Amino acid sequence: MATINFGGVDETVITRDEFPLDKARQVLRDETIAVIGYGVQGPGQALNLRDNGFNVIVGQRQDSSSWEKAKSDGWIEGETLFPIEEAAAHGTIIANLLSDAGQIAVWPTLKERLTPGKTLYFSHGFGITFKEHTSIVPPAEVDVILAAPKGSGTSLRRLFLSGGGLNSSFAVYQDATGKAYEKAVAMGIGIGSGYLFETDFKKEVYSDLTGERGVLMGALAGIIEAQYQVLRQRGHSPSEAFNETVEELTQSLVPLVGENGMDWMYANCSVTAQRGALDWKGRFREATLPVLNELYDSVASGKEAERTIQRGSTQGYRQELEAELAELRESELWQTGATVRQLRSLSK
Ligand SMILES: NC(=O)c1ccc[n+]([C@@H]2O[C@H](COP(=O)([O-])OP(=O)(O)OC[C@H]3O[C@@H](n4cnc5c(N)ncnc54)[C@H](O)[C@@H]3O)[C@@H](O)[C@H]2O)c1
Ligand SMILES: CC(C)(O)[C@@H](O)C(=O)O
Ligand SMILES: [Mg+2]
Ligand SMILES: [Mg+2]
Hints:
With 348 residues, this protein is of the alpha/beta class. The chain has 17 helices and 10 strands. It has helices spanning 21-27, 41-51, 65-72, 84-90, 102-113, 126-129, 131-134, 153-161, 180-190, 201-213, 218-233, 238-260, 262-267, 271-300, 303-312, 317-330, 332-346, and strands spanning 2-6, 9-14, 33-36, 56-59, 81-82, 93-96, 119-122, 143-149, 166-174, 193-198.
């Protein structure tokens, strides 16, 4: 375990150097990891674990598109691919990677198979933290651990295949065997994490729900829509509005932020741009602070969890989500984006 100073604050970080893959394999050598759910994280984690040499099986609803996807990813019916009940019975580490709302309906099935000494693994603190809403209360004799990749399961798999690793947080909620900590770290390494940051279930879910509703997804889409709208209403063409709002952001400036920080991106723009951005960023910060505080309160009060569960448990919810995404995709803004993306290949 390394102590690393982040902006003046010491934090505990696990690196692959001190907890190499061989050690992770050693810790989990007698375990069968049953990955339950094959949505986005399910495939990423199950395939990385399998390729890393762990003993993995997948549990999924039969006659679902995810079942077919699992088969096409090389999981074999009756050998490494089972209905949820069977996989949970075979698994000694039950990796609960169902949707957060879906975990509620399946919980009694998993709970029944969580015999003493087994491990319950999550990639989110949701089910445990919001137990008043989920009723997920694990038996006392099992370890309860978390490794939560800080990014999409798609990126987790892509980075793994390219030899990299996505950073994850990890936590122990319940240590029944005295080995929960090393199992959590070993799972984190096994699924293909780069660095592992220690947290607890509550902090993980509060920060994660705030991040995705805020800057990472909700605020990102919202501020893009607002600026595009202003530019269009002031007479700019779709392509001009899109290029100045999205294309330059994703293709030129955000990669520079990722590479070397905000000041580096600023320093690579004109003095005119730097002056204006430095003058205006405070206005944007102040304008969004109340919204972000309201969002955090909504997360901490359980309101966000309640809404996720309520909406996520209704019949036909996947189709509703699809329809909302289609509306986004078919908007002038994102249709313009589709055309602009096609032009990228021509300019290569
Ligand atoms: N999507 C990500 O990249 C990501 C990143 C970090 C953490 N997580 C966490 O990982 C977990 C899994 O997320 P995900 O996005 O992969 O899930 P998801 O929403 O894609 O759902 C996973 C699977 O659950 C199945 N499912 C849902 N309800 C069910 C039910 N009642 N019975 C049986 N199966 C059901 C779905 O068919 C799907 O195959 C969640 O806790 C999530 O918060 C996800
Ligand atoms: C990929 C995200 C947004 O980081 C994750 O938290 C999720 O819920 O999918
Ligand atoms: Mg999330
Ligand atoms: Mg997240």
